[in-house]
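quick one, 523 residues, struct below
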Amino acid sequence: MTTIQAGQPAVDRDWFSNFTSNTVCHFFLIFFVELIAYNNFFSGFFLSDDFNLLTGTSKWLTPAVEFFRPVPHLIIHSFHKLFGMNVFPYHLLSFLIHYLNAILVYLLLKKLAAGNYFALTGGVLFAANFLISEAVFWISAITSLLVTLFYLLTLYFFINYLAKLNKKYCVPAVICMIFALLTKENAVTLPVVLFFAAFYIENGQVEKNRLLFSLKRVLPFLFVTFAFLLVKAGSLTAAVSENTLSLGYHNLRNARHLVLSLFTFNPFYDLPFIYIDVKILNLFPGLALPAPALPINIKFVASLIIGTIILIFSIYIFFKGNKRMKAAFLAFFISMGPFIFVSSHHLRFGGHFLYPLRLYYLPAAFFFIFFALLLQGGYSRLKKRVKSRRPVILLVVLLIGVLTLSDLLKVNKRSRDWLIAGNITRSVINGLADFIPSGPEERKMVLFNLPDSYKGVYILRNGLRSALTSAYPDSRVTIEIVKIPPEDYEFPTGSSYKKNLVFINCAEAELTPIRPEEFKKIP
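---
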């Protein structure tokens, strides 16, 4: 036994155990991992819908419109007033919200009796995950970040409420849910998640009727949801009449893609399971999708084997797992299900096969809670079957390390695409300054070959008019975006020599004026 002599400082022999149990150290590690993943995205410029978000706040304050999201839009509008077109504060805000969400994943795991290793695992994997990185990269996706923040806060306070049945914990949970609903509409799933939390998570009391007990606990949240749906009735009716709601195929397609992508946790390649998913869908009439190319190589085979092993192991542990694990998986499934406010023109193939989707952000938080509990369950079972714990610990640490490192590299690589897309946007907007009159003169600009996207990142798909309003608030410019080549454009009658009509070719983000005589048909 080691003794400490007089005058010798007391040194804790088990410094590693202290680290794994020190919450502040865990918070720092999660922050450090996220910073490595997103360190080079802070200079990325505004893209597409970002400009609508900056300038069009008022229409999002009316409950009858399709997207009634006052919380994120007022935040961005306030940032616009304070910081203008300086993009850094907006990205910093997204980064910090993502960090808070990772911390909440960690704290919820602690509430669900996850060990220190596994609570930290859930937080780290969520902070570094590639699949959800679009929500952090894209300023417009702050709605996904914020709704997850309020969603998880609601659940956190609700679990405290279950433990003590004290109304002082119920009040902040209800307030957080109201903020979640005013941030994004998929927060309507919260009462169902809370119901299963009340049903499965023990609160230290023996209840004769768990069903009735759970229903009583979620009544305030059901009332808030009902009131919100009444307020939203007008926009829901309009969306149904315009056939813009996607209640069936698209949501199921995205749900399958999320489950397959997350369960594989593939450090190399996610194509095999997406390919299999598409092939299964193509067996059904009317659901045919173009399948990606299928290169059979070592990377493909390794990916398929690793993904299959993890998927089978996950299913096995789930059925053998405890109530908390089942509650976490049900929360993941419920939060994934009803993207009922997503228009049918969004996400046709689940992100065009290779790119992350911002809509997966909230479900991913619950998935990592489930996955950490699943790892803990698997670890507990393996411990009972082997004599030495060291190989089991090393196996778990190796798995977590490979998954984290893989996602860090993929997020860093993907951030370059977003930076390039932002540079293209900046180039186009700055280039238009040469064609915008400095005085009150009106001018119409006809744009050809306007960049739409770069490697799946929207550039100027939407928002160009709002971008010009932000960048040149005193100008009076009308924009016409033409999708056909300049040589096929029919010159407008009577406009040949109007001084205020300008034709611009935006190919390769190099803005070049087009002379009228270059058109085929000139009146």
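Residues 1-13, 242-251, 264-268, 338-356 have pLDDT under 50 and may be disordered.
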